[in-house]
Amino acid sequence: MQSVFRGRHFINLEDFTKEEVDTMLEVAFDLKKKFAMGVPTPYLLHQSMFLMFFEQSTRTRNSMEAGFAQLGGHAGFLDSSSMQIAHGESAKDTAIILSRFGHAIACRYCNWGYGNKYLTEMAKWSTKPIMNLQCDLYHPFQALADLMTMKEKIGDLKQVKVSIIWAYAESHKKPISVPVSQVLLFPRYGMDVVLAHPKGWELPDWVIAQAKANAEKYGGSVTVTDNEAEAYEGAQIVIPKNWGNWVTDQTGVAASGAVAVVDDKLKAHKSWKCTEAKMATADKNVLYMHALPADRNNEVEDSVIDGSHSIVYDEAENRLHTAKAVMTLLMGGR
Ligand code: CP
Prior knowledge:
Elements: H1 18-37, E1 48-53, H2 59-70, E2 74-79, H3 91-101, E3 104-109, H4 115-125, E4 130-135, H5 140-154, E5 161-166, H6 177-185, E6 192-196, H7 205-218, E7 221-225, H8 228-232, E8 237-241, H9 246-249, H10 264-267, H11 276-279, E9 287-288, H12 302-305, H13 312-332
The chain binds phosphoric acid mono(formamide)ester.
Protein name: Ornithine carbamoyltransferase
InterPro entries: Asp/Orn_carbamoyltranf_P-bd (IPR006132), Asp/Orn_carbamoylTrfase (IPR006130), Asp/Orn_carbamoylTrfase_sf (IPR036901), Asp_carbamoyltransf_Asp/Orn-bd (IPR006131)
Family: Belongs to the aspartate/ornithine carbamoyltransferase superfamily.
């Protein structure tokens, strides 16, 4: 078990060694067991932290808020539109002040080209840990919960075929941060990762290069394809989920949170939906995962997400346990 976590920022899982990620999982499993048994876990008694959101959230906000309370602390929710950020206050000043008031700052800012830079700037000035609740590039809490869920269901993940598959959606333009974090993390556990998407929805080249380097180091593999059928065929885990074509069309600032996201280019790929017929081509015990919220009947048929292969609610629950593990280690560890 690695134990030098206290005071570190949590912006990207690539900043942590595999042994450190293993430790996060061990702590998450322990916290999950204690939660199930009703054993109190007051590891962060009387601490306070701030949860800053530039965008909406259900799972991330509430796993952090409830999780921190269960650890004995108090988390204050901050909607960025009601902060002085709305009048132009800088990331530097916000980070310095809030880090003097409490013990950590967590932030979601998904705006393409801005989110990660904002978090990095806060991390430069904050005297307390900065935690990434999802930015334009990474969603480390989601990827960690996904990893925990896969280990819980399968155990050793070496040579398990996991397919991260682009899916059609109309609900809103989603960041690339979930597939980026997954494609970087899963090869570190020796998984055979297939990334499938239509032409035009590529992840950045540096992401694929790093994912392949991780695979090389840990004995996994990374295959990128525009052939959806190849991704489903024989897969033990499928993660069909929409992401926006942020990288290729560079839509920039106005794109974040946009409602009107449907155009002819997107509509041409309406067939990229997770269906029972496609699931039937996967391994007979295939697991269906999704970070949620799902765009039902666009990304996935109800019969799949509500069916026997779906583990989306276990996946969502693990957001709580992994969030508590990261907060405990960064704020309470030695
Ligand atoms: N998966 C996830 O991050 O969900 P929220 O957007 O509801 O936080």
